[in-house]
Amino acid sequence: MVLQVSDPSLVVLCGPAGSGKSTFARRHFQDTAIVSSDRCRAMIADDEADLRVSPDAFELFHTIIEMRVRRHRLTVADSTALQPEARATLRQIARRGRVPVIAVLFDVPEATCLAWDHRRDRQVGQSVIHQQWDRFQQALRTIRDEGFDQVVIVSENELATTRVQIVNSE
Q1: Coiled-coil region(s) at which residues (predicted)?
Q2: Quick check: 93 and 69 in contact, CB under 8 A?
Q3: pLDDT band at 10 (very low <50, low <70, confident <90, very high)
């Protein structure tokens, strides 16, 4: 699959922990374009896993995204984006910045997410992944009606072969 991404745009990655979102982002986008909620937690508390700082981390996450979008920079929002409200906030940021917003959903089986989580340095665990995977199933059913300019679903089999083609739109 070839995923065409206009530059500028806001690319919203959506999927449970362990589904390959961050690896996909690093493989296909410049490091400076990727805004990671985990990285924002680490910037505030020196620990990506410190959920106590999540409110501040997401304020920083949204602020960085808003600044990049306002400057018409290709931006990748790397978080789970499993809640409709989280996706709505990101769509609003894109609309204010007058850039397209693309949802990329990582449709990876729960067992694969668990296996990939087990190999990571910072594991979130089975119960968290199970809850996130259930929320992701809801997102799969509703996201096409949420107002994204483009919705792309990437399966586990497509992760290794998907290419991102960045198209300059300005």
Answers
A1: none
A2: yes
A3: very high
Query: What gap in Å lies between CA 124 and CA 19, rounded to an integer?
Result: 12
The per-residue pLDDT of the chain, averaged, comes to: 95
Pick the CATH number of 2-168 from 3.40.50.300, 1.10.1410.40, 2.60.40.1220, 3.30.230.10: 3.40.50.300
Dihedral (CA of 39, 40, 44, 45) sign = negative
Distance from C-alpha of 18 to C-alpha of 123, rounded to nearest angstrom: 9
| Residue ranges covered by each domain of the chain | 2-168
User: Tokens 């699959």 label which residue?
Assistant: 1
Do residues 8 and 66 lie in contact, with contact meaning Cβ atoms separated by under 8 Å?
no
> Using alpha carbons only, what angle is made at residue 137 by residues 126 and 158, rounded to the nearest 5 degrees?
85
Q: Write out the two tokens for 48.
A: 């990506």
Angle formed by the axes of helices 126-142 and 84-96, nearest 10°: 60
Give the Cα separation of 33 and 131 in Å (integer): 29
Residue 104 CA to residue 116 CA, distance in Å, equals 19
**Cβ-based burial of 79 (10 A; exposed 0-12, middle 13-18, buried ≥19):** buried
Residue 142 tokens read as 């509703």
Please state, as a whole number, how many other Cβ atoms lie within 10 Å of the Cβ of residue 168. 8
